[in-house]
Design goal:
The chain contains 9 helices and 7 strands; from the N terminus they run E-H-E-H-H-E-H-H-E-H-E-H-H-E-E-H. By secondary structure, it is α/β, with parallel strands linked by helices. The protein has a single domain (3-221), classed as Alpha-Beta Horseshoe (pyruvate-formate lyase- activating enzyme), CATH 3.80.30. It has a 7-stranded mixed β-sheet. Helix 5 (85-97) runs parallel beside helix 6, helix 6 packs parallel to helix 8 (157-170) and helix 8 (157-170) packs antiparallel against helix 9. It is elongated, with a radius of gyration of 19 Å. The relative contact order is 0.11.
Amino acid sequence: MKRIFLADGDCLYAGHEYLLTLLKMINENFPNLQRITSYATANGVLKYNLKQLKELKENKLKMFYMGLESGNNELLKFVNKGNDANQFIEAGRLLKEAQIKNSVTAILGLGGKEFTKRHARDTADVINNVCPEYFSLLTLIIGGNEKYIKKIDLLSRREIFQELFSIIKELDIKTIFRSNHVSNIVPVNGTLPKDKDKMLHTLELVLLDDDPWLDRVPQHEGEMHY
C-alpha cells in the first residue's frame, strides 16, 4: 500500500500526541507507504504549532483537504462555517511553512444572487493569499439541503458560469485547478497560470451562448444537482 487516507473528518482534533502515535504505527505496518492524507479545518490546523505540523509531515502526513467554501466572511457566518477568512489564510500559510500540501475547495452558488459578486471576489482573494497546491470548485447540491436552499435566491446555470469565470479571472497564483466534480455542469480544469486564458475563453463562449437553458435554475428542470 502506497497511500492512506485518514478517517472521515478533521484528524487534527485527535490531538498531536495521539495523531503522531497513530502515524508512526501506520508507517511501521506499511513500510512502502508514500503518503498519508486527511481532511482538515482551519480551526484544526491552528491548534498546532509549526514544530508539531513538521513532525506530522516527517511521518508522511503530506497533504490536507480543506473546505474554504467561501472567502466572504458574511457568507461564512451565514452558513455557520465556524471560521473566518483570515483564520483560513493563517492556517493555509502555516501548512505552507510546514511544507504540507493543501487541496482547497470552495462552492459555486453557495450564497445565491445576493452574495455572488462578493463570494467570487473574496474567494479568489483568499486563494491568492493561501496559494494551495490544488484548488477545486464544486457547485451547491440541492439534494439534502432543502432548508438552506429556501434561504437564498438560487443562481441560474449562466450565473454559476459567471461566478466560476470571475473567480478564475482573479486568481494570480500557481496551482492545479479543477472543476470536475459530479456537481459541476461542465468540467473546467487546468494548471494556473499556464491554462488561465484557455479556461476563461471556454467560459466566455458559454456565457455568450443565448440558449435559454443557461438562464434556468437547474432544479426547476428536476435535476438532482447543478
